[in-house]
Automatic annotation (TrEMBL):
It comes from Pelomonas cellulosilytica. Residues 46-55 have a biased composition (Pro residues). This is Zinc-dependent metalloprotease. It holds the Pfam family DUF5118. Keywords: Hydrolase, Metalloprotease, Protease, Signal.
Length: 892
């Protein structure tokens, strides 16, 4: 029987059964009963009662509301806001991103920040709508494995809510309540707030609302004003706890309550994805990365696509052509008028690199009108924004990208007002509140990656403060005059060049500053033409001359050779059939000295990645980082000398000298980190097997390691390097108008923090491992003269306890250093990991030198004529050391 006939027979049978059931449920009227009127028999059956849970008709819901047409139309009526989702937009990917327009101004919570983005789609399950983040970390270029990937790797729910209307009768779209979707904690701020303040904050929907909306064909944007609250602030503990808790928020009127404005962007993806460009390890580009599990023949399934804007020539045949669509940066109206030209110059500087590869005016700058009623935090305006915080001084240059191709779709540079307010305050006023102790100035130097937070601006502001201090005292430089203003403007341009580089897809390059010679840095003509480094993507120090040297450019003025090279690789238009070969040719230039590259991990981000190549640093300058470290100490010593000789003037800030001294120690903190990397250091080169000649790793020359060790021992660990007169220290007042007024100026505390940083590096397990293993990288003939772990430990111990041999008095500064050394020695002797093979050698070496020190201390303690302070210190030190050596060690 044909399928159609079979279907008809089944339907007839079902109809007959239904008729029989209906007769059984409604038997005929009893005999003799009156017949129903004909009109009653023909009347329609009564309508069943309406389902109270069914969505209301579309027209009823939006009655009186105003529509904003767009990708997802937005409807507003009084405080009610709905998002209309067309039927064809369900299960269709788009880019969902979150920005922060308003914040609280402290502890990492600042305005004008991009939080992140996801490839997302709307999904409907009955009368429920989900906003789902798609899993783009695992993909397949084979249809055979896509089903397995979907089963293996889950998407994530961003938010969800009930359908607010029935389908539109024509468009078949539905409405969802925006408040129900967007007034929760989508960005996960409750966790971030708890991490910062150790208090259980949560979103308060009742006092949150949708404050603004915007829509067009490519974008729908809704800004949610979300209230976060905690029921109470716990009372402080009666007894001090081992690890102090952070204080509650200080920048809000009531620490139990705060508002954030989250800008939620729903952006359409390009209909045709940009052609992906493969990243090369010899250059530093941000990438869109994933694991391609579609084939099992690849040795490494990871795929890395360069992050870049879509840039195409209007005239592909022309040597120089305008782009079809330029990269447009909007300068926000919140940028102070006095800095706008410098900001604009920093953005447009990158056009020089694009002109080299055939693009005219690839970058365009527009100024948001001061009376504009729109916010460029939406996902279609690449912007430069100014923001303020109570404890902030940084700039950031993140971007949102199409995960299918790496195409950059949006970027918002956030720049704190550290130059408009902070730098001048640092240079002329006082120490920032809450940072008057040296420990806070010298604090943790952990380095976040550029996509998270770039510290270049903060460090530049402190460099500027140090430079203005020194130049004012050396040359009579007027801190409020036109020369100081010109320098501040130059630093703004420098920072903007750096951050725009991030938004163009470039990572940090912490090695480029070592590709300019010391002679070139002293040549004003050279630095004005080429800058002071071969990349604006480095954290370049100020080019301050020593006393008596000529002054060249103090900061970067233009792009460097590396910047041109990185832009060429990412943006040069290349025919598809030639791309692989041409990109290989471009990347092969990596062996040219000017194009040296080292990223955040090469510089050091902590843990096992502590940075072992002394050429990849923050805040050094020139082709000899060790020579620069010595120069930085001399510059600091000159500043201390001049600060102590300066006569105070009536009406000046009482904390000016305190701030100058603290700023100099901040600069030395990075110098100590950099110079310590020489000891046990290894030069790393980005080798492509079979393509790039040379070695991937080579230990730092032994002579340089010993020179760095001598400088540390005789410079950074010597009390003679830090000379301050008692008269100067006793004359430094406090700011009695502040609750957190600080304590009397204590140079030993600052020196102790600096020296502790050196000891942390030189006595770390990572340094021990490299010193032990470096001989494996050396030819047999060079191993005998290599720096050994014993030599490093012995040199440190001899320098730190020199008074034990000479019989001299041990002053407070030296006593602090010796205690810091013993604390780290104790860690080496008791660390459980010393049972591992490589650390067994480190443990035995540390124990050997500790035993020698104990013998020397016994001899020193018996010498007559020592002060009570020195004798007590020697007795305490010997007792600690004996206990450490007697302690049992649990070996694994």
């Amino acid at each position: 029987m044909p399928r159609t006939a079979l279907a008809s027979a089944v339907l007839l049978a079902l109809a007959a059964i239904a008729s029989t059931q209906a007769q059984a449920q409604n038997p005929p009227a009893p005999s003799g009963a009156a017949s129903a009127p004909a009109s009653a028999a023909s009347a329609p059956a009564a309508r069943p009662p309406a389902d109270p849970s069914a969505p209301k008709p579309f027209a009823d819901v939006i009655k009186g509301a105003k529509e904003q047409p767009g990708l997802f139309p937005i409807w507003r009526k009084d405080e009610k806001v709905w998002i209309e989702i067309p039927k064809e937009q369900f299960n269709k990917p788009f880019l969902f991103s979150v920005n922060v327009a308003n914040s609280i101004g402290e502890r990492g919570f600042y305005a004008s920040q991009m939080i992140g983005d996801e490839l997302a789609e709307w999904r409907r399950i009955g009368n429920h709508v989900q906003l789902v983040a798609l899993n783009t970390r695992y993909r397949s270029d084979s249809d055979d494995s896509k089903l397995a990937l979907d089963q293996s790797f889950s998407p994530s729910l961003i938010t969800s809510g009930g359908v607010a209307s029935a389908e539109h009768p024509d468009r078949k779209s539905v409405l969802v309540d925006a408040s129900g979707l967007l007034l929760g904690d989508i960005p996960g701020y409750s966790t971030r707030l708890e991490q910062a303040f150790r208090l259980p904050y949560g979103p308060d929907r009742q006092n949150s609302f949708i404050e603004s909306t915007r829509a067009d064909a490519q974008l729908s944007t809704l800004t949610a004003r979300v209230h976060f609250a905690t029921p109470r602030i716990p009372a402080p503990p009666l007894v001090p706890i081992p690890v102090p808790l952070p204080p509650p928020p200080q920048a809000v009127p009531d620490p139990r309550s705060m508002f954030f404005s989250f800008v939620y962007n729903f952006r359409a993806l390009p209909e045709t994805p940009l052609a992906a460009r493969a990243a090369d390890l010899r250059l530093g580009h941000f990438t869109e990365s994933y694991s391609n599990l579609g084939a099992d023949v690849r040795a490494n399934p990871r795929v890395h696509m360069v992050a870049r804007w879509r840039l195409e020539k209007k005239d592909p045949a022309a040597a120089l052509s305008e782009p079809v669509q330029p990269i447009t940066y909007w300068m926000d109206k919140d940028i102070p008028a006095k800095y706008r030209e410098s900001v604009k110059a920093g953005i447009l500087e990158w056009n020089k690199a694009f002109e080299k590869i055939g693009f005219k005016d690839a970058i365009v700058v527009k100024q948001q009108p001061d009376d504009a009623d729109w916010d460029n935090m939406d996902a279609t305006h690449a912007s430069i924004r100014w923001f303020t915080g109570a404890d902030v001084g940084f700039a950031i240059g993140p971007s949102n990208r199409d995960p299918r191709s790496g195409e950059i779709l949006d970027a918002d540079i956030g720049m704190s007002d550290v130059f408009g307010r902070g730098a001048r305050r640092l240079a002329t006023d006082d120490v920032p509140p809450g940072q008057q102790s040296f420990s806070s100035w010298m604090g943790d130097r952990s380095h976040q990656l550029a996509e998270d937070q770039c510290r270049y601006m903060a460090d530049q502001a402190h460099e500027l403060g140090f430079a203005l201090d020194l130049l004012a005292l050396r040359e009579g430089f007027d801190m409020t005059g036109p020369e100081a203003d010109a320098l501040a403007q130059a630093v703004v341009k420098d920072v903007i060049m750096h951050e725009v580089g991030h938004t163009l897809g470039l990572k940090h390059n912490f090695r480029s500053s070592t590709t300019v010679t010391q002679a070139q840095l002293r040549d004003k003509a050279y630095t004005e033409a080429h800058g002071i480094s071969n990349s604006v993507m480095d954290y370049n120090a100020f080019n301050l001359p020593l006393r008596g040297e000529p002054r060249a450019s103090l900061t970067n003025t233009t792009l460097g050779a590396y910047d041109y090279w990185a832009i060429e690789y990412a943006y040069k238009q290349i025919p598809a059939e030639q791309e692989s070969a041409e990109l290989g040719r471009i990347a092969a230039r990596s062996t040219e000295p000017q194009l040296a590259y080292g990223d955040d991990f090469d510089q050091g981000v902590g843990g096992p990645y502590d940075g072992f190549d002394p050429r990849s640093n923050q805040r050094d300058l020139g082709d000899d980082p060790l020579a620069y470290a010595k120069k930085r100490l001399k510059l600091s010593q000159e500043l201390w000398e001049r600060v102590q000789a300066r006569k105070p003037e009536p009406g000046e800030d009482p904390l000016r000298n305190r701030r100058s001294v603290a700023e100099s120690f901040r600069q030395l903190s990075m110098t100590a980190h950099n110079v310590s990397k020489y000891v046990g250091g290894i030069y790393a080169e980005r080798i492509v097997p079979g393509v790039t000649p040379g070695q991937a790793f080579k230990p730092v020359d032994s002579a340089q390691q010993r020179e760095a060790l001598r400088f540390i021992a005789t410079g950074l660990l010597s009390s003679n390097s830090f000379k301050f007169s008692p008269e100067f220290l006793a004359s430094q007042p406090l700011d009695y108008n502040e609750w957190d007024r600080g304590l009397p100026l204590a140079i030993p505390d600052a020196v102790a923090a600096l020296q502790a940083q050196v000891l942390d590096r030189l006595m770390s397990p990572n340094t021990a491992r490299r010193l032990i293993e470096q001989s494996a990288y050396l030819p047999e003939a060079q191993r005998k003269g290599a720096v050994s772990l014993s030599e490093v430990y012995g040199t440190l111990q001899s320098a730190i306890f020199s008074e034990v041999k000479t019989g001299g008095e041990i002053d407070r500064m030296r006593r602090s250093l010796q205690r810091e050394y013993l604390r780290r020695l104790q860690g080496q002797l008791n660390r459980a990991t010393n049972g591992a093979a490589v650390y067994a050698d480190a443990f035995s070496m540390a124990r050997y030198h500790a035993s020698q020190l104990a013998r020397d201390l016994r001899v020193a303690a018996a010498r007559p004529g020592l002060s009570t302070e020195t004798r007590a210190h020697l007795a305490e030190t010997l007792d600690m050391l004996d206990n450490m050596l007697k302690a049992s060690l649990q070996r694994t």
